[in-house]
Each structure stands twice: as structure tokens, then as C-alpha cells.
Specification:
binds zinc ion; four-stranded mixed β-sheet; single chain
Length: 299
């Protein structure tokens, strides 16, 4: 398992390890998966990975909220007491204060973002690939928590899960142009898009040289910095934004990577559940958290 910084820990679940953000866990149950469990693209079958995720989160299998993700910034709001639909619909952000459901986002290189408001207990799950980062999906998720559940961004804690890092994420001029066209990012774009990779040496991604595709130099995109900056712009205190900084491309043994595996890449999730840990008078005893911490055994 890759080493983690102090804000994260590996936990043991029935299928193996998952990653948890310690400060976020104090507010809401959640985890980020790796290659296990195997998660089907469509549907749910008895005993499959989705069943196991639901069991670990303490919800019914159909209550793991899976949107049809489209690399946009559409929001689905689920309020406590809503009639739960058979089809969760399309979007890249789920916000809810409903303890019956566990919103998730499915990723393979894209950034899974989970957040929770310590006062209302409301949570959000957001899917932020480069298009999501370019459109400001992280800020949109915070705004949805504010508008739907009255959250104060100062009370929100955020975890940014494993995803392709600035060590490996080379993008072409087409991507750079999308960021450059949005004046909101003009003061930050040099931090997000750099000529050289950041951090540890990349293992290299076969067949991906964007410069060959469009005739212009590629850049390395730091989606972790982009999302963290956007969350702070949305009012989240910097100390409440926790970046796992684990690159899915560098750790292919542990994670799926779309850039490496292509369209056949499996999917991982970040999943979260509103509820028992909110700062409100306790109406019921706290429920047990999924998993127990394990110590990494090197990698
Ligand atoms: Zn990497």
C-alpha cells in the first residue's frame, strides 16, 4: 500500500484495504477503494462488490447512489425524507443529508472528492476529472451544500482521494486552452499547469504524448492543486482540505488507471454517508464505523 500522510489511514474492509481521511471520518463515514472490490459498470448482482460496499456503509444495496457521470458539474440533491428513485440520474455531484443513502463517485484517474458539514451532517461526493476541474466542480459542490442544507463553508471538511497526480498527468494544448479560457483561473493556471512534472518521477504512461497529437507542448496538470485552490475559493479553510496525494498511475498495482488501462479500466469509488457524527443532540447511539485502521506494510 502506498504510504499516506497524517490526514489519511488505510483501513481493512472485507475485500482488503481502503483509504480513509481521519479528520473527515470524525464527521462522516466514508472510504476510497482501490482495485478491490470489483465494481460492475451497470447493475447490481447478489453478493457483488456493490453489495459489499453497501454492507460496509450500512445502507441497502440500492441506496449506494451512483450517478451517470458526464464530466460536468450537474448536482443531484437528496433530502432526508425524499422518495428514493429507481434511477439516480445524471450528474457529477451528489449532496444529501439523508442517512439512508451513501453517495459515491466512480473514478479511474479522475479525482474523487468527498466532503461533510459538521453542523448539518450533510455530505457531498463530487467527480472531478480535468473537465470538472476546468468547470469548477469542487466549488459547485460546496455551493450545493450551502444552498441545499445551509452549510457554512467554514464548517466543511474535504478529502481528495487517490487520482492521477502532477507526476504523471500530462495533458495537451487542448486541455490547457480550456483552463486558459476561464478568467476565474487566470491567477492560478501557472500553478496548475506546469512544463515539468511535480513530485516523484513518473513511471510513464504508454502511448500518451499529447504534444504529438496537437503539435504543441504538453503540460502536467495538477488536479490536486486545482481542486484544493477552488475549495479554498469557495470558503473552505485551507486546514480543512486534505489531499491524499496518492497517484493512481504511479501505483497501478493498487489502483485502476484509465490512462494506463484504457477503456477497459475498472472503477474505484469514493463513498460517504451522512449521519451519526453530526454536531447535533444525539438521537440514537453512534453506529460503528466501517473498517479498522491498519498500518501500511511498505510498498
Ligand atoms: Zn504519478
Amino acid at each position: 500500500m502506498p504510504p499516506v500522510n497524517g490526514a489519511f489511514e488505510w483501513i481493512r474492509l472485507p475485500w482488503g484495504p481502503a483509504l480513509r481521511c481521519v479528520p473527515l471520518a470524525a464527521i462522516a463515514d466514508h472510504f476510497f477503494t482501490g482495485r478491490q472490490p470489483v465494481l460492475l459498470r451497470e447493475g447490481i448482482r447478489p453478493g457483488d462488490g456493490w453489495h459489499r460496499v453497501a454492507l460496509s456503509m450500512g445502507v441497502a444495496p440500492r441506496a449506494v447512489v451512483r450517478l451517470q457521470q458526464v464530466h460536468g458539474s450537474g448536482v443531484v440533491v437528496i433530502s432526508a425524507g425524499d422518495v428514493l428513485p429507481a434511477d439516480w440520474g445524471t450528474g457529477d455531484i451528489v449532496v444529501t443529508d439523508d442517512e439512508r443513502v451513501a453517495p459515491c463517485v466512480q473514478v479511474a484517474d479522475c479525482v474523487p472528492i468527498l466532503m461533510a458539514d459538521r453542523r448539518s451532517g450533510a455530505v457531498a461526493a463530487a467527480h472531478a476529472g480535468w473537465r470538472g476541474a476546468a468547470s469548477g466542480v469542487a466549488g459547485t459542490a460546496v455551493a450545493a451544500l450551502v444552498s441545499a442544507f445551509g452549510a457554512d463553508p467554514a464548517d466543511v471538511t474535504v478529502a481528495i482521494g487517490p487520482s492521477i497526480g502532477p507526476c504523471c498527468y500530462r495533458v495537451g494544448a487542448d486541455v490547457c486552452r480550456v483552463f486558459a479560457a476561464d478568467e476565474r483561473w487566470s491567477s492560478r493556471i501557472d500553478r496548475w499547469l506546469t512544463a515539468e512534472p511535480k513530485g516523484r518521477a513518473a513511471h510513464g504512461v504508454p502511448g500518451s504524448d499529447p504534444s504529438a497529437r496537437d503539435g504543441m507542448p504538453g503540460r502536467f496538470l495538477d488536479t490536486w492543486a486545482a481542486n484544493a485552490d477552488q475549495l479554498q475559493d469557495a470558503g473552505i479553510p485551507p486546514a480543512h482540505v486534505h489531499v491524499s496525494a496518492i497517484c493512481t498511475s504511479c501505483h497501478r498495482d493498487m489502483f485502476h488507471s484509465y490512462r494506463v488501462d484504457g477503456a477497459e479500466a475498472g472503477r474505484m469509488i469514493g463513498v460517504i454517508r451522512s449521519g451519526a457524527k453530526r454536531e447535533a443532540p444525539a438521537a440514537s447511539p453512534p453506529r460503528p464505523s466501517p473498517g479498522s485502521p491498519v498500518r501500511p506494510r511498505g510498498y
